[in-house]
Amino acid sequence: MAKTFFPKMFIMVPASAPHPKNTQYKVSIGEELWSDNRNPVIKIQMVYNGEIAGRRSPSYPLGTDDFQRVMLAVEKLIAKSQDNEIEII
Question: Which of 44, 45, 55, 48 is nearest to 19 (CA)?
């Protein structure tokens, strides 16, 4: 499978139970190929035991602060990108 996402920076956020141990959310800013064009995107991926879970969509257990912590990571990455610490073409 050809690579379609090219992260420029990311933050790993630990996931709460009932996710399995060693589960994280990878919150990234980067470029993703859409119809032969590289588009700047924010991407959130599930990571299990250090491996990105392909097309599995992120899910946030109710009763946890997972969603809030992921959104805080998104805000931090956006702020960094706006401070010109990263160039998204």
Answer: 48
51 DSSP β-pair partners: 48
For the segment 17-66, what is each residue's pLDDT rounded down to a tens digit? Answer: 999 999 999 999 999 999 989 999 999 999 999 999 988 899 999 999 99
| DSSP-assigned states of every residue in 38-87 | EEEEEEEEEEETTEE-TTPPP---TTSSHHHHHHHHHHHHHHHHHTTSS-
pTM attached to this predicted model:
0.88
Tokens of 62: 């109710």
How many angstroms separate the CA atoms of 84 and 89, rounded? 12
Cα R_g (the chain), whole angstroms: 14
- What are the φ and ψ backbone dihedral angles of 46, each rounded to 5 degrees? -85, 135
How many other β-carbons are positioned within 10 Å of the β-carbon of residue 11? Answer: 18
